[in-house]
Amino acid sequence: MKNSTDGWLNLPSLSLPLRTLFTGYLLVTGLGLMMAGVQILLTHGMADGKLGVSIDDIVYSYYGDRGNSRLEAKLNGSMKDKAPVEVRTQIIQWVQDGAPEQDWEPKVKGLFKQNCTQCHGNIPGLPDFNKLAAVKHVAEVDKGASVDSLTRVSHIHLFGIAFIFFFIGLIFSLSVGIKPWVKATIIFIPFIFLILDVFSWWLVKWYPNFAVLTIIGGFGYSVASGFMMLTSLYQMWIIPFKGESHNENTWKG
Ligand code: HEC
Question: Where are the domains of the chain?
């Protein structure tokens, strides 16, 4: 198992305090990555109305559902039971005419007052449909993520996740029995796929066909970091107890 290039500091022979420190870190980040996965399933995963992340979800999230506004999508979706079909048809007709302002007061405002404003006007966090501006906002064609929000999410994602991969890679770099170039490649993969992932969001915003890159990116770094975490845990907690000594001053004595 031990390789001539494995240093004196390696996972199977770590002192108990370092071992618990690394293990605690790996358990918490592992849990965090799983939670991130669940959150992606529930937000982006539901963008096309079906559970599970698909190409459509990514296209809806970043490119948008062009040819449809959020208002129309909701009136045919989760808000369908909030108004009778004649009212919904009238609102949708108005939206498709470009939501003309001169029809707001005489025709449309009343429909919202009767069917929508008991919630959209009272529940904090929901757009206030007493105001034409709020209605216009959801009546616009859905263009997906804005450049503004993409810039914000991109830099948080890059900084935050680089930190996680740095420590996972650092711990894994102390593993034994893996050829240095293989180790180096595995450590490098998550960073490359992270860049690919973030880059793909921007591509999809303008070219929806690139959505497959987002899936490859996410899949690539999940597999590589999962492999590093499991290998590190195995080498810290299983190998030392199999009686194979990797160092004279191993903590077992
Ligand atoms: C009983 C309360 C209630 C009523 C009545 C209601 N809504 Fe909603 N609406 C919600 C809630 C809660 C949400 C957020 C959850 C969701 O998107 O399904 C929402 C979300 C929306 C959204 C998405 C808002 C956003 O910022 O993404 C639109 C558009 C919308 N409703 C339109 C309507 C219209 C049009 C009507 C009237 C025909 C209506 N709603 C009536 C509770 C209500």
Answer: 11-61+144-242, 67-139
